[in-house]
Design brief:
Layout lengths: L4 H7 L8 H10 L7 H13 L5 H4 L14 H10 L4 E4 L5 H8 L7 E5 L2 H11 L8 E4 L18 E5 L7 H14 L7 E9 L3 E4 L6 E4 L2 H15 L3 E11 L3 H6 L3 E10 L2
Parallel strand pairs: 1-2, 1-4, 2-3, 4-5
Antiparallel strand pairs: 5-9, 6-7, 8-9
Length: 272
């Protein structure tokens, strides 16, 4: 699929400002010389853009290691380091958040990443230069396919990360994803879902930018109601902590289509 030319240009950044968070990973974890970091990122972006023109690729959002400022991140690191928990990054793109977790001390052998496209997950090795050292496993799978290879993780996962994922779908399909996530979790209290999504002060369906159909944008209250419904349907109970990020969704196409869109950071915990 090729985006319309105007949207292509809007999502294709010509300059790059790398956050200190990302630069630290690339210099200290990947051992890339400081003067080579930016050229390296441009080269990876060009390689990925040739495969699929996702806005997150053109705008370098695959360099945004958002997991480290999500609610409950300190708890996640502690559980991974001390309790042998298993974590899945669902919709992991290049697996960039997994590298942040590893850098912060999480055992890489207990981390999994999944996305539709194996080629993007493989490009993560090119970006972070860790194919010979990273022990995490990557699974190419469609979350809506009950027979995908994700089934091998059913009932084994303690923590799931979903960043910039739920907001891609309408509310009905979000519920399908939530039910699939529950199958992946161990059937016990303190199962933990963390992530971020594009949200809106006024929740509801929004027309999608790249494709036909709608996507549902939550606010903190609607996100809790959503998980109340999931709990009622599954005989479980969930507490959804959600806060607005200080930043906004700033790409031109997004701001024109979703004038009130903001990043909603969340941690959803099973309490019964």
């Amino acid at each position: 699929m090729t985006l319309p030319e105007a949207i292509n240009r809007d999502f294709y950044a010509k300059e790059l400002e790398i956050s200190q968070n990302t630069r630290e990973i690339l210099e200290r974890y990947s051992k890339i010389a400081p003067e080579k970091v930016v050229p390296h990122c441009f080269a990876i972006r060009e390689k990925a853009w040739a495969v699929w023109q996702y806005p997150c690729i053109g705008s370098f959002r695959f360099l945004d290691l958002s997991v480290s400022y999500l609610p409950a991140y300190d708890e996640v690191i502690n559980r991974l380091k001390t309790k042998n928990n298993v974590l899945l990054d669902l919709g992991c793109c290049f697996g960039q958040d997994l590298r942040r977790l590893v850098y912060d001390g999480a055992p890489s052998e207990n981390l999994y990443g999944s996305d539709l496209r194996l080629d993007f997950m493989n490009m993560g090795y090119d970006l972070f230069l860790d194919k010979e050292t990273l022990k995490s496993k990557f699974i190419a799978a469609d979350v809506f396919d009950e027979n995908s290879d994700l089934k091998h993780l059913d009932g084994r996962v303690d923590i799931i990360v979903t960043s910039a994922f739920f907001h891609l779908f309408d509310r009905s399909r979000q519920k399908t994803i939530a039910h699939r996530i529950l199958k992946l979790f161990r059937p016990q209290k303190d199962a933990l879902l963390i992530g971020r999504q594009g949200g809106s002060e006024t929740p509801g369906e929004r027309e999608r930018v790249r494709e036909s159909g709608t996507s549902f944008h939550h606010n903190p209250e609607s996100w809790q109601r959503f998980w109340d419904e999931i709990g009622a349907e599954t005989g479980t109970k969930w507490q959804a902590q959600a806060v607005w990020d200080n930043g906004t969704v700033t790409t031109k196409a997004a701001s024109q289509t979703f004038a009130d869109r903001r990043w909603l950071l969340f941690a959803v915990r099973r309490i019964e």
